[in-house]
Structures are given as C-alpha cells and as structure tokens.
Amino acid sequence: MSAVSTASATRTASPGLPWAIIIAGSFIAVLTFGPRSAMGFFQLPMLADTGWDRTTFGLAMAFQNLAWGISQPFFGAIADKYGSWRVLAFSGLIYAGGLIIMAFADAPIWLHIGGGVMVGLGVGSGSFGILLSAFARNVTPEQRSMAFGICTAAGSAGMFLFAPLSQGLISAFGWSDSLLYMSALMLLVPLFAIPLRGNSSSGTQKEAQYKQSIGEALKEALGHKSYLLLVTGFFVCGYQVAFITAHFPAYIGDIGIDARYAVIAPALIGFFNIIGSLAAGFIGQRYSSPISSRGSILAAPSSSPPSCCCRSRRHR
C-alpha cells in the first residue's frame, strides 16, 4: 500500500515540460534554420543579376557551413559561462546583418562575408547546441528526449516553411528584397531568446554539482565510443543537407524538371523530418537511444540514390 502511494506521489511530483522555454526555443530553431535551408532558391536569380558563376555562390555556402561548424563549440562555451540569451541575441543580429550584406553584395567578397561567414556565425550561435543545452537545464533527464525531439522538429519546420516562403518572396519582390524581409525576421530571435536566459549554473536541472572544465568535458566525450560514432554519423547529414540547401533548386532546373518541384521537394524533406524528429524523441524517451540513432543513420543515405538517378532515367 505504501509502495503504491510512494509511486503515485512520485508521478504527481514529476514536473511538466517548461512550455514557455520549449516554444520560444522552437521558434528560434524555425528562424535560424529556415533561411539557411532556403539559400539555394537565391542562387539562380542572384547569379543572373550579378553575372557571377555557380562556384562563387557555392564557395559562399562552403564558408557558411565552415563558420557554422567551427563556431559552435566556442558559442557553446560562451553560453555556458555568460548565458544563452547573449549568444542567441548575437545570433539574431549577425544573421540579420549577414543577410543584409548578401542582399546588397556587389562583389563576390561581400557575398562570402555576408551570406557565407556572417550567416554561418548566425546559425552557429543560434543552433541546436545552444538551444538544447538551455532545454537540458530546465527539463528532467526523463523529459529530455521528447524536449530535444520537439526542438529538432522545429528546425525541420523551418525548412518546411521557408522553402515556399522564400520562393514566394522572390517571385513577388525579387531576391534582394526577399533577403531584407528575411533579415527583419531574424531580429525576432533576441525577443524569443528571453525565456532561455541563464547559464550552466542556472535552471531547475543546473549542473553546478559536477562542473567540468572544457578540457575535462572534451576528454570525457572523446573517450566515449557512442559520442564518437554519433559525431561521425553527422557527416551523412552534412553531405546531403549542404547539397540540398545550396544546389538542389538549380539542379532541378538543369535536368529539365518543373521549377515548382524545387519547392515541393525541400518542403517534403522538412515535413518528414518533423515526423522523424518527434518520433525519435518519443522513442528515445522509452527505449535505448542507440537503437533509434542506428535506424536514422542507416536510413539517411537511402534518400540520395533516387535523386541522383533522376538525371540518368530522364535522359535515357
């Protein structure tokens, strides 16, 4: 009888999800991942107006991805020490600035600085590394998988929403003005970041009792086989996403497929990523995380062969 009462009391005492933090963080994920995933729609109209070639645009997107990846550990360390809000506010400002410079770029160097480095830094300082750590400070370990699934689904929602939105803006206002409108949206990030303020010593699940230095954290992570395998698995995602976001719309036109499919395909990718992220969060909350991780990593490459074969089948 007492055991039943204790279990019941434990369930009753279990806190609910902090929805203000989760909703605010999810909006930020939509905004920071949306424009980045729509860059490919700007390639052809921009190059038509400027006379640049595709390698110029591709190099800018390469700088963007490098700036995003290299900057994330540093922004994570800054957020841990000085608070997530400062880093996320910086993300919104530098992201907006990068899109503005990209909109008015009259030489490749400005495209590389604005659309490349600055937008990459904006994504790096507003990416999952910052958002999920803020979530982790405010949800219990039992809730983290579902909370993380919601946030990653929101990032995919950015791809789902910004594919048609960016193409619609370009059709209505041109590529340059469209970038300005999207830069204005990025100024909402500092406002949405307010509920996520705090550093590694704050929140309901603060980790002050087992603080680590950066060196200690890296040593522990690099000594963990699952961590190394998971990081390696992200290369699968990187190759595909870099192609889809930067070159897929132009590639669709090259092989003679109707332009509307350049919008439909990324939107569908985003839509099914939403389902997959939520499902992974739900499954991870109930089963071993490596099980769901193996499934997603093995499934990811299977999406590439059909798209790669489109050209050969069409020209037979």
Explain this structure to me?
With 316 residues, the chain is an all-alpha fold. It has a single domain (18-199, 214-314), classed as Growth Hormone, Chain: A, CATH 1.20.1250. The protein contains 15 helices and no strands. The protein has helices at residues 2-13, 19-37, 43-50, 54-82, 84-103, 108-125, 128-136, 141-173, 175-186, 189-192, 214-222, 225-254, 260-286, 289-299, 304-314. The longest helix is centred in the middle third of the chain and has 33 residues, at 141-173. The chain is globular and about 55 Å long. Mean pLDDT is 84; it is low at 1-12 and 294-316.
Give the CATH H-level superfamily.
Answer: MFS general substrate transporter like domains
Radius of gyration: 21 Å
Examine the coordinates and then state which fold CATH places here, giving the name of the CATH topology.
Growth Hormone, Chain: A
The best one-word shape is globular
Would you list the SSEs in sequence order as H and E? HHHHHHHHHHHHHHH
Number of strands: 0
Number of helices: 15
Largest sheet: none
CATH architecture: Up-down Bundle
Kindly list the characteristics that best describe this protein.
15 helices, 316 residues, disordered C terminus, disordered N terminus
